[in-house]
Specification:
about 120 residues, mainly alpha, 4 helices, about 85% helix
Length: about 120
């Protein structure tokens, strides 16, 4: 379940648990709680937007630099060298994919399932 699908049920659950308790202390406490919750949510959104902005800036800079660099490479060394250089970038990027960490996480999950025992292990499906 993605963040968009879980955000509304999570918000409803927090409100269902918190508002009756806060409501006993008066309207001002309830409104203060909701205001604080909104400010915290807005702060998290700003942090996420800033991170996406930094990533997009770098991506756009490399996208803008690609045509002139390839044109210079084609002019200097020819099409074969340019195509060879372009083919190397996906291979270099593959080195940065965290496959080992993913395998470790899967193995840890399998070990947790084995620790539960055969009667309590979750079914696959």
């Amino acid at each position: 379940m993605g963040i968009r699908q879980s955000a509304q049920p999570l918000g409803v659950a927090i409100a269902a648990l918190a508002l009756p308790t806060i409501g006993e202390h008066g309207r001002s406490a309830a409104l203060a709680f909701l205001g604080t919750f909104c400010v915290a949510a807005a702060a998290l959104v700003l942090v996420a937007v800033r991170a996406l902005g930094i990533q997009n800036t770098g991506q756009n800079a490399f996208a803008a630099a690609t045509p002139p660099v390839l044109a210079a490479l084609i002019g200097g060394a020819g099409y074969g060298a340019a195509f060879g250089a372009v083919a190397l970038f996906p291979l270099a990027a593959a080195a940065f994919i965290p496959v080992r960490a993913e395998h470790r996480a899967q193995e840890d999950g399998a070990q947790d399932d084995e620790a539960l025992g055969p009667d309590t292990a979750p079914s696959a499906g």
